[in-house]
Amino acid sequence: MFTKRIVPCLDIKNGRTVKGTNFINLRDAGDPVELAKVYSETGADELVFLDISATEERRKTLSDLVLRVASQVNIPFTVGGGISSVEDVDILLKNGADKVSINSSAVKRPELINELVAKFGSQCIVIAIDAKYIDGSWIVHLVGGKVPTTLHLFDWAKEVEQRGAGEILFTSMDHDGTKDGFANDALARLSQELNIPIIASGGAGNKQHFIDVFTKGNADAALAASVFHFGDIPIPELKKELHAQGITVRL
């Protein structure tokens, strides 16, 4: 059985870690460099760093902050936000990122996925998909969830896989920050229809939600923010509980 991964997410705005609900009402959650170091030392399997306002503000990801975070961690480190070219990815990888996550730029020009995979390999290209359940369909949104598209989650996810992406990071906008559990039905369908790993995001509130996302949602990794940032769920305790439930994790 594949080892399931626990992935804290650092949403960055103005150089600070922030967390909101349904992509709005952001509040400060601490220094990203300090948080990254703690997560690396306390059992996180990977770390995701998302510069959440880079696309909206039409600027590049904070590469200097990426360098500072990378110097403090010894686990795989994914960076996203404002990435739109081979050159952008090259800079971030040279500054210490192991993988990059792209969202809006991939939707606007899907060929970018092929270009990045050809240059850097599938293993470091993650496609982030933010979607909202509207009138019976999961609709893909861009620019930090502010701009709806005509794309449907499952169609876009299949295209992303066909273009060579190594992983998908799916965030349910409806579940984000609610602490009511992950979008397990959508996750289970993604897992069934695709052959690449699915990272679940949006809705973690307690240990049972993590058990459910792996057993019901069949996710390969579970990403969360506030429950880790504010100390609600210590990662070592979470992993012990998952292990006790027969879920394979790195202890």
Question: Can you describe this structure?
Answer:
This protein is an alpha/beta fold and 251 residues long. It has one domain: Aldolase class I (TIM Barrel, Alpha-Beta Barrel). It has ten helices and twelve strands. The chain has an eight-stranded parallel β-barrel, surrounded by six helices. α7 links the parallel β10 (167-172) and β11. The two termini are 15 Å apart. The mean pLDDT is 90.
Supply database-style keywords:
8-stranded parallel beta barrel, 251 residues, 10 helices, globular, TIM Barrel, alpha/beta, 34% helix
Helix-and-strand structural type? alpha/beta
Unreliable spans: none
What value does the Rg take, in angstroms? 16 Å
At the fourth level of CATH, the homologous superfamily is Aldolase class I
**The CATH topology:** TIM Barrel
Please outline the major beta sheet: 8 strands, parallel, barrel
In what range is the share of β-strand residues?
A: 25-35%
Instruction: Determine the number of helices (DSSP H or I, runs of at least 4 residues).
Output: 10
Sum up the overall morphology in one term.
globular
Q: Assign the CATH architecture.
A: Alpha-Beta Barrel
What's the order of the H and E elements? EEEHEHEHEHHEEEHEHEHEHH
- Average of the residue pLDDT scores: 90
Total count of domains: 1
Number of strands: 12
In the CATH hierarchy, what is the class?
Answer: Alpha Beta
Strand order of the largest sheet: 1-4-5-6-7-10-11-12
